Structures are given as C-alpha cells and as structure tokens.
C-alpha cells in the first residue's frame, strides 16, 4: 500500500506531501509498465487532475514499446506529453495524429470516445507522461474533441518552461479546459533555484522526471509527486544536483465533486460505470469506432462484486 509522507519545511512554512509511485501494467495482454502517482488512497485529485502515469525511458527494442488497443473513455480528458519517442494516436472522432516530444495532444472523452495508442517504428526510447483530467458535472457528457499544441520554450532565470495548459511565467496555452488548470514541463539548470508566481487558489503537484529537486525545501526524487495545498503565491524549486533536472508541474483549484473512476471511465455513481461498460461491450455508438488499428478492441474487465463508491480528496 502506498505511503504518503508529509514533510513540513519550516515551522510556519508550507507542508509538502511526497506521493511515491507504484508500478502498474498498462494496456492489456501487451502491457508496458508505468509508474502511477495519482490516484492514491489519500489523494484522488490535484485540481481536476485525477490520473498521473509516468513511463520510461524505455528501450523499445527490449520492452516492445507501447501498444494499447482501442479502448473507451467517459467523463474525462486525456493529456499526452512526451520527453522522447513518438506515439501514433487514432480515435473515433476520426483524428489520426502523432504525439511528439514537447507537443500536447489533448483528447476530450465526454459522453464517450475510444482511441488507440502505439509507439512508432521510429521510436528507440519511449519516455513521457499520460495524464487525465476529470470533467465537472455540467460538462462530463460533452462532445468528443481533440486539440494539439506545441508550446514555445519560455526562459526562466535558471531554467526553461513549456506551458501546455493554463498560464505560467508569462505564457498562456490556447487550449481550452473545462476547469482552470496548469500543466507545464520545467527544466532547471544544475544548482539553480527558480521561483514561480502561481495562483494561490490552486493546489499544485510537481512530478519529478529526472534529477533531484526540492519543492518548498522538501527533497523530491525521480518519480515522486510533491503536493502543495492552496495558499502559496509562489513556488520555490531548486535543482540540488550537478546535472539538469526535469519535472512536470500540475495545478488547479480543488475539485469539489466526488468521482467514481474505474478502468477507463469516470462517472458519479456505480450505475454510470456499469452502463458505460455494458455499452462498450455491446459496441454501442456511444463510443464510435477506431479505424486503422491492426487488431481487436480491448474488452472491459469484469466489474467488482461490490458497488463502486464515489471518492474525493480527504480534508
């Protein structure tokens, strides 16, 4: 069971929760292993961010890379962000796109969508994050949608930012979201300290990709997710190592709704999930069809015997 470590940086300073990752197989029979930091028992969301998978660097010649057959989503948006490699995306909206390093692909599931994800033949090392955003009640049945954005690097005093959602360091992503969000890749020079102005109404999570960073004075290691509650107008990050460090910063105001998240679906009740599962198994028009993937769809797993319960963050 995952342990959450709470570290108080000073007597009156902010408390950083350190959420370690757990290894999870992803993608059915041809599963690749990812490191998952959200959701956890004690923390379901950071803002509307409800799912954080971190994978690689994987030598695809040894691991086989990514091959996730067509599968469904409801009630969420998927956010794909790569550090290296290339992923081919196909969905039932008819989008055929590629995920490349430093470029955002955001897919809105809403009422229902399905898609496939495969690393391309050109990929030698696959490395990145896969993130989900929970849609609020009034928008969780919205229509399918897809956005692509390649943010320009923004220089920082001691590093660089690429802002793929929201606003940071004077740059704003043009990609629309259904709740206020922040998503950015940060790189810090060796020994550098960067202080970022942020919205004090946001809670934040910093996922370390490589290097050793401190967030508000708390050490974070690769694959750790450091969490800070709302209230801070600035975030202080320090690269304590002798090589560049990289992390992904996520944020948003606390998500007040409870959600039921099971397999690839987000709903509000057990019945929402059971209905979505049945419709996927029956090949309902709700999810559409992926064209061009050389294989079968992923079947849904069996539902648990007990009713799925809504969850939110513990306060």
TrEMBL record:
Residues 33-133 form the Pirin N-terminal domain. Residues 184-283 form the Pirin C-terminal domain. It comes from the Bacteria. This is Pirin family protein. InterPro entries: Pirin, Pirin_C_dom, Pirin_N_dom, RmlC-like_jellyroll, RmlC_Cupin_sf. Residues 287-315 are annotated as: Disordered. PANTHER family: PIRIN, PIRIN-RELATED.
């Amino acid at each position: 069971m995952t342990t959450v470590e709470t570290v108080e940086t000073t007597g009156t300073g902010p408390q950083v929760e350190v959420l370690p990752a757990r290894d999870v197989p992803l993608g059915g029979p041809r599963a690749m292993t990812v490191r998952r930091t959200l959701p956890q028992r004690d923390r379901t969301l950071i803002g509307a961010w409800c799912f954080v998978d971190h994978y690689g660097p994987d030598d695809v010649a040894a691991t086989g890379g990514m091959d996730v057959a067509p599968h469904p989503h409801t009630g969420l948006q998927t956010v794909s962000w790569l550090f290296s490699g290339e992923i081919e995306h196909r969905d039932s909206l008819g989008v055929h796109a590629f995920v490349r390093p430093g470029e955002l692909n955001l897919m809105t599931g809403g009422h229902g969508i399905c898609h496939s994800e495969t690393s391309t033949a050109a990929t030698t090392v696959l490395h990145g994050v896969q993130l989900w955003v929970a849609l609020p009640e009034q928008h969780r049945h919205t229509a399918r949608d897809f956005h692509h954005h390649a943010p320009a690097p923004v220089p920082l005093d001691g590093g660089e930012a690429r802002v793929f959602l929201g606003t940071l360091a004077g740059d704003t992503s043009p990609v629309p979201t259904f709740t206020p969000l922040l998503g950015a890749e940060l790189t810090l020079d060796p020994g550098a300290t960067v202080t970022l102005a942020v919205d004090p109404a946001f809670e934040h999570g910093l996922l370390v990709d490589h290097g050793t960073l401190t967030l508000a004075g708390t050490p974070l290691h690769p694959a750790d997710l450091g969490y800070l509650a709302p209230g801070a107008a600035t975030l202080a990050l320090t690269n304590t190592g002798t090589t560049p460090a990289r992390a992904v910063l996520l944020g948003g105001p606390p998500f007040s709704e409870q959600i039921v998240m099971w397999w690839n679906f987000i709903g509000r009740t057990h019945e929402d999930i059971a209905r979505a599962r049945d419709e996927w198994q029956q090949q309902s028009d709700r999810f559409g069809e992926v064209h061009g993937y050389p294989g079968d769809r992923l079947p849904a797993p069996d539902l648990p015997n007990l009713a799925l319960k809504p969850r939110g963050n513990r306060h």
